[in-house]
Amino acid sequence: EVQLVESGGGLVQPGGSLRLSCAASGFTFSSYAMVWVRQAPGKGLEWVSAIIGGGGSASYADSVKGRFTISRNTSKNQFSLQLSSVTPEDTAVYYCARVVVVPGGLGIDYWGQGTQVTVSS
């Protein structure tokens, strides 16, 4: 059974840092690209960052580029998102998810339960 479990969310002050982690199990972790997606209150889903299976290449949404860093530890079946210089606009539920190839492109087939990040003074 595929499972993705996030941890590390919480309350952080503007300008602060926070590290989110996602523990993966039930599949060959190194074979899949993984992503972080967030949903701010009252808004739709926003892709935040992605990292390929080998961990060597990552991409970021313009809204977080230069502030967030994605990484993965294949030996531990875990990947993380380091949030830095956060602003209230980063307040959201953050989800980790697994990427799969679907007709016409890429999709997501498994999601974690989400972890709340609140940026407030």
Description:
The structure is a single chain. Strands 2, 4, 5, 6, 9, 10 and 11 form a seven-stranded mixed β-sheet that branches. The chain contains no helices and eleven strands. The protein has strands spanning 3-7, 10-12, 18-25, 34-39, 45-51, 58-60, 68-73, 78-83, 92-102, 105-111, 115-119. The radius of gyration is 14 Å and the shape is globular. The chain is 0% helix and 55% strand. It starts with a strand and ends with a strand. The protein is mainly beta and 121 residues long. Strand 7 (68-73) and strand 8 form a beta hairpin.
Strand content: over 45%
- Point out poorly predicted stretches: none
Rg value: 14 Å
The SSE string, one letter per element, is EEEEEEEEEEE
Structural class: mainly beta
In which range does the helix fraction lie? under 10%
Q: What separation lies between the terminal Cα atoms?
A: 40 Å
**Largest sheet entry:** 7 strands, mixed
Tally of DSSP helical segments: 0
What would you call the shape? globular
Output mean pLDDT: 95
The total strand number stands at: 11
Task: Write a brief caption for the model.
It is built from no helices and 11 strands. It is mostly beta strands and 121 residues long.
